[in-house]
Amino acid sequence: MALVNKIIPFSCIDGPGNRTAIFFQGCNLKCTYCHNPETINKCLNCGKCVSTCPVKALSIKDNKVLWDDKKCVECDNCIKACNHLSTPKTKDYSVDDLFEEIKKIRPFIQGITVSGGECTLNADFLVDLFTKVKEELNLTCFVDTNGTIDLSKREDLVNVTDKFMLDVKCIDNEEHLKITGLNNHTILKNLKYLLEKDKLYEVRTVVAPNLNNEHTIKEVAKIIDNKCKYKLNAYRKYGVREEGLKLHGEVGPSEEEMKIYLEYTKTK
Ligand code: SF4
Ligand code: SF4
Description:
CATH architecture of the largest domain: Alpha-Beta Barrel
Largest sheet: 8 strands, mixed
Distance between the termini: 46 Å
Radius of gyration: 19 Å
Shape: globular
Bound molecules: iron/sulfur cluster
CATH class of the largest domain: Alpha Beta
CATH topology of the largest domain: TIM Barrel
Number of domains: 2
Number of strands: 10
């Protein structure tokens, strides 16, 4: 079983073509600029959010918080009330149940992309899901990852995945530790490993104030050496929690600034 935060049936920003994007709940990083911090932890069933729901879509049974998606009006009061970086709006899926959801949409999509949270924390589940989806639905399977799981030790997952999308947040380890809570050693190892295996669709870096963006972009571009796409995302304050706002502020880089950063991605 795996805990899923959200399924977007049709997405054109999560890899090539029209894809179903599946967001898993739970992440092992705590990025200061995260836009969806409610995906970081799994719910503790403390019940604090239940009374904030205006339509009684939340209830408690046997010490477990239950969410009725049919009643929910997506006001996000529950997420705002949670101080555990979590949400009661998740669902546990078996591989077969998730496969059935994908099968319903099959005629309209080119593939699926799993994201998060950090989807590779469910690596065994992904191997089973991708194997079934490829064999029975003939769809491509992409993984959008923070790169913290050593993929050279998960060849089963790498082999069954068509392409990966990898976030590289900071090249400097101290800075990486400061903004994510974890070192970047495995991420950089995965970057080189996936390039060697020709398994990278795209690498991404968030350009945020008060980080050494120029250094990160130039060094990451050198490693990529035009072997895959390198995408820069401008920091925006929406969804970012207080700690992140203190560090990065309210205003992200302008279009003009992003053009300058884009130049740093050019190695030739
Ligand atoms: S988002 Fe849904 S479950 Fe949460 S408080 Fe609003 S209506 Fe209730
Ligand atoms: S979502 Fe947060 S507030 Fe609600 S029950 Fe879970 S941990 Fe408690």
